[in-house]
């Protein structure tokens, strides 16, 4: 009897130890990305519990091939309007096209934007606390083909207590939860009082509180958010709209959510020697991604001025090669 008890205890300890190893990978991933998930819940209305469960399931806690090689943590495939990088991978069918990102944070952001599509509109009728409703609705809307997709999400949420993340949504989360600058945040004025307009400096500080400044190829930029236009962004930054548009090769172009808004002139050469285009990619999008002026890319690659969108996969040079310099 004692031997039997010892055997059961040994097996239990062995299983517990194995579970801890599996848990640790998930727990580390949750700790790394929970604040991003909470910020996306605040900004886009998607439950942080659902965001984390999808990321864990789709990326294997960041260890899947797509996550490692394409920085794609949500298994989002290419769509007709996708203008970014691509990665081919065998999924439901052979050699399927998946979106490729510069880093995992960009994947989390694109996931939030992806769910703003009309296809998923009914998801937002469900409260953020109702993770079961969200999981089932995502499956109904066609996010995944796996018939057990919803139960898998629900199990991950319950196993790791991710439903408790939604409770934190009432308070500011993510980058905006901590005061990182001396920006003046004025309380709303009571009805009937005269509202003193913000100074140019205060307007700019308020703008950067909601638009974290980033940098690529030596040029600072922010990502466009809902409601942004070149006109109102220029006003808040206290610059001329035409100047801002010229920095972004955007004369006659409307600003869309997720577009990069460069705050200064883009470079005439890129950080990379060349990149690959693909059918449907616009020259403008390529130049925005690489922070390079469109005219410079046209001249270097001798592109027809009428070309706006690529129709084939080709190498696009962003700087002269050594062979070019010898000529």
Give a written overview of the molecule.
The chain is mainly alpha-helical. It folds into three domains: 139 residues, Orthogonal Bundle (Lysozyme), CATH 1.10.530; 63 residues, no CATH class; 53 residues. It is built from twelve helices and seven strands. The strands form three sheets. It has a three-stranded antiparallel beta sheet with strand order 3-4-5, with helices on one face. Strands 1-2 form a two-stranded antiparallel ribbon. The protein has a two-stranded antiparallel sheet with strand order 6-7. Helix 1 crosses helix 2, helix 1 crosses helix 4 and helix 2 packs across helix 6.
Number of strands: 7
Task: Estimate percent helicity.
Answer: 40-55%
Strand order of the largest sheet: 3-4-5
Structural class: mainly alpha
- For the record, give the distance between the C-alpha atoms at the N and C termini, rounded to a whole number: 88 Å
CATH topology of the largest domain: Lysozyme
Biggest sheet architecture: 3 strands, antiparallel
Low-confidence stretches: 1-22, 169-195
What characteristics describe this protein?
3-stranded antiparallel β-sheet, two-stranded antiparallel sheet
